[in-house]
Amino acid sequence: MGKLVGEPILEMGNLTRHFDIGRKQFVHAVDGINLTVSEKEILGLVGESGSGKSTLGKVVLGLEPKTSGWVKYRGELLPQKYKARDFQKWSGKMQMIFQDPYSSLNPRMTVGEIVGEGLRLRSGTTKSQIKDKVADWLLKVGLQTDHMSRYPHEFSGGQRQRIGIARALILEPEFVVCDEPISALDVSVQAQVINLMGDLKEKLGLTLIFIAHDLSMVRYVSDRMAVMYLGSIVEVGKADEVYFDPKHPYTEILVGSNPEPDPNLERKRASTTIKGEIPSPVNVPAGCRFANRCPKVEENCKRVTPKLIPLKDSDRQVACHLLN
Question: What values do phi and psi take at 158, rounded to 5?
Answer without folding.
Answer: -65, -40
